[in-house]
Amino acid sequence: MEILMAFTIGFLFMAAVYLILSKSLLRIIIGTGLLSHGAHLLILTMGGLGGEAPPVLDEGAKTFADPLPQALILTAIVISFGVTAFFLVLAYRSYQELETDDISLMRGSDEDE
Amino acid sequence: MSQVLYIFIPMLAAIFVPFLYKSVKNIHTGWFVLAVPATLAIIYATYIAKVAKGEVFLAELPWIPSLDISVVSYLDGLSLLFSLLITGIGSLVVLYSIFYLDKHKEKLHNFYVYLLLFMTAMLGVVQSDHLITLYFFWELTSISSFLLIGYWYTRDASRFGALKSMIITVGGGLMMLGGFILLYLMGDTYSIRELIAMAPELMQHPWFTWSLVLILLGAFTKSAQFPFYIWLPDAMEAPTPVSAYLHSATMVKAGIYLVARFTPIFAVSELWVWLVTGVGLLTLFWGSFFAVKQTDLKGILAFSTVSQLGLIMSLLGAGAVAFHVNGAADTVFKYAAFAAIFHLINHATFKGSLFMIAGIIDHETGTRDIRKLGGLMSIMPLSFTVAAIGTFSMAGLPPFNGFLSKEMFLTAMLSLQNFDLFGFDTWGVLFPIVAWVASIFTFIYSFYFVFHTFSGKYKPEQLPHKPHEAPIGMLISPMILAAFVVTIFFIPNIIGDTFVKPAVYAIQPFLYSAPGDIDIHVQAWHGLSPELFMTIGIVLVGVLLFVALPKWQGLYNAFPRALTLNNFYDKIMLGLDVGLNRVSRLYMTGSMRHYLLYMFSAIVVIVIGTLIVKDAFTFTFKGAAPIHPYGVILIIVLICGTCIALLAKSRLTAIIGLGAVGYTVALFFVIFNAPDLALTQLVIETISVALFLLAFYHLPKLGKSEERIRFQVNRAIISVAVGVMVTLVALSAHSQKLVPSISKYYEETVYSLAGGGNIVNVILVDYRGFDTLFEIAVLSIAGIGILAMIKLRMNRKGKAHENK
């Protein structure tokens, strides 16, 4: 299963990088979303997908899924959510102010030179 | 201890100069400054008698003891001679500057602060026995020289000259530092004396040649040797006292000092002999050849300085030959080192006085252009006398000291061809010939300098001021120096015994056991030797060519400007400026996509490269979980969702595609036994999608991709490469796990130690609660940030552009 997941995650990363390299801010944000999904799945896969039961006691199970990667992913999900939300509002505001979402047009002002 | 402090006296005195300048307006600040070098000269004079007997004086002031760095003052014959030149000529230059610089018009406090700083730096250079402090003082001379050349900072030429000399000498200084560090690594000591003592072992070391070349580069740049001499003529924009002091008598001799000081270490190398002699002779010829072309009085003197420094350098190289000859103390090679030091003293006297005369002419007539000058002999008789003494000495005529050192120079060069080592027997013939031709040019420019200025037609209409004799105060210093020029001719052996022999003893410590053992007796009349005939030849050919000068001086203009070294320097500087600018414009495009491309390519190349180089890729099914049937379905759904997000034309479809991926991930969490994750992922994906929809209600439609096809190809290649890289890393990381998970501990203790059953939750709030704390902080900051972005809005048209 891990082998299959490795290829899937590779595909997710590929799609994410392709979107991040596009011109439109919207696509870039979608790309970062895909990238974080890929990263979370990677952490889970690398922790091993074995284990019969969720890491909760009282089930009488012999083996649990590894709880540590799950804790790490939980933290990562929340953080990436916070950052994505911030980024979204930033994109929204920059579109309001600059009236474009094409990043090839956002090259700083002439005064910078 | 106090010996070390003498070095710093000028620097300490410099602190008081601005106060004196501001508070005592009536007296020229230079009079106060004069006391400093004069006192020091007297102090150093007290060492003369003891040093002449071969004694050395050593004092140490710890600076950074833990790194074994200290300021060491080491006075032997060589450093005492230089210290006396620095303080002695320093006093005369300060005296001269009192009359040269106007106390009302000039910023004297700047001038004297820089000058005193320079004096400390120079004393430090010649007395340091410690490599690092030697380098420290060395760069201090570069900096103070930079400040002095740029003294009239409102002139373009001053700034250009200052920058040029700074770049070249500091560049060389850095090379020298490299050489010093190599020496330290080879000998494991910073002390030059100790390095000299272990010279035979150093020669065996593989870095020996490197440190030799690097240290020579430092010396050559500082002493204006070919091809690094180009800064010196441009440094003539400095006030004349500065030119006289720094660029003829002291700073340019720092490189000479360095070569002399390191001769006992490096002279055993063939390369050293060849480089020092060869570059010295080339510089000698080049400088004297181009001095005749100059039309600026100080330009002539600058090229003449270059040429004479080359002469001294070549003599030091020839002196190094003595290390290769058995019983050298009894052969003719012993002359070279003696002649080098002797000429160094002589050059300091006559060149200092000539610069001062050039300054006087500039001061009294308003121009230094030799084409406008002429016939000043009767108007400025005293200046003429001094100038004549200086130039005749420079040309090597009796009864002046230049004659004596030139004879010894010719002796040394003639002796080189008898030397059957390193192929000197075949090429050695060239040495006396080059020396002879260079001496003829020296003769010509010396006469050109004095006679085109003082004799010939008087052209008052071309002169900005009406010329008259300089004030006597201005003439005192050049007259004292000229008096030395004559005196040394008549008492050369007193100078030789007191100053030159102790210095030679420092350069060639292995040859003699005391300065008194050096049995060289300078004679004005040394019989009908080849040297004498060469001198007669120089005078005859020189006079002929000088008389015919107007006929052939124009030939210099035929030399193409494009081939001059200055042109090369300008081209290099311009090329670096323009070229580097072009290079950074090439990759700093301002486009974020380009930067991301660089970053992703770098990551891919480094990671995949490491995988290949380290042969790290392995692949095994061992230890993998069995394939889950629902998992396969979810994978298919996930890939479909990703493709939708990837290829969607409308923003809604893209957002839904992303949402589908998110929910599929949540389902993955379900089948992989991660209930908390599934819960969180579902909630957060819902909120995210809502946010996306909310925010993108205001955003424009996804435009049809109008990007260049080439970029799309780059993009596709890079993204596929990143995907492949992640897969490869994941596969090989999974296939070679080294240690088991620590989660066993959590499973065993979660109830007994933490009193909980949900291991993930207990990890989050108990075992690793700090992560959670700061994750809360991240969320709060994001919330506050979003609020701030939406609420705080500067008025675009009003205050937003505060730069305007």
Please explain how this structure is put together.
Chain A: Keywords: Cell membrane, Membrane, Transmembrane, Transmembrane helix. Chain A: This is Monovalent cation/H+ antiporter subunit C. Chain A: It is a multi-pass membrane protein. Chain A: Pfam families: Oxidored_q2. The complex is a heterodimer of chains A (113) and B (804). Chain A has 113 residues and is mainly alpha-helical. Chain A has one domain: Helix Hairpins. Chain A has 3 helices and no strands. The radius of gyration of chain A is 19 Å and the shape is elongated. The N and C termini of chain A lie far apart (54 Å). With 804 residues, chain B is an all-alpha fold. Chain B folds into 4 domains: 266 residues, no CATH class; 269 residues, no CATH class; 153 residues, Four Helix Bundle (Hemerythrin (Met), subunit A) (Up-down Bundle); 56 residues, no CATH class. Chain B contains 33 helices and 2 strands. A two-stranded antiparallel ribbon of chain B has the order 1-2. In chain B, a hairpin with a 4-residue loop joins strand 1 and strand 2. In chain B, helix 1 packs antiparallel against helix 5, helix 4 runs antiparallel to helix 21 and helix 18 crosses helix 23. Chain B starts with a helix and ends in a 13-residue tail after the last helix. The relative contact order of chain B is 0.06. Classes of the chains: A mainly alpha (113), B mainly alpha (804).
Task: Offer a few descriptive terms.
heterodimer, A: about 110 residues, mainly alpha, Helix Hairpins, 3 helices, B: about 800 residues, Four Helix Bundle (Hemerythrin (Met), subunit A), 4 domains, two-stranded antiparallel sheet
Count of spatially separate domains of chain A: 1
> What's the order of the H and E elements of chain A?
HHH
Amount of helix of chain B: 55-70%
State the separation between the terminal residues of chain B, measured CA to CA: 60 Å
**What class, by secondary structure content of chain A?**
mainly alpha
Q: Order of strands across the widest beta sheet of chain B?
A: 1-2
Rg of chain A, Å, rounded:
19 Å
User: What shape does the CA trace of chain B take?
Assistant: elongated
Q: What is the CATH architecture descriptor of chain A?
A: Orthogonal Bundle
Main interface pair?
Answer: A-B, 87 and 97 residues
CATH class of chain A: Mainly Alpha
The CATH topology annotation of chain A reads as Helix Hairpins
Helix content of chain A: 55-70%
Looking at how many chains there are and whether they match, the oligomeric state comes to: heterodimer
Q: Supply Rg of chain B.
A: 38 Å
InterPro entries (chain A): CPA3_antiporter_subunitC (IPR050601), NUOK/Mnh_C1-like (IPR039428)
Protein name (chain A): Monovalent cation/H+ antiporter subunit C
Family (chain A): Belongs to the CPA3 antiporters (TC 2.A.63) subunit C family.
Membrane topology (chain A): Multi-pass membrane protein
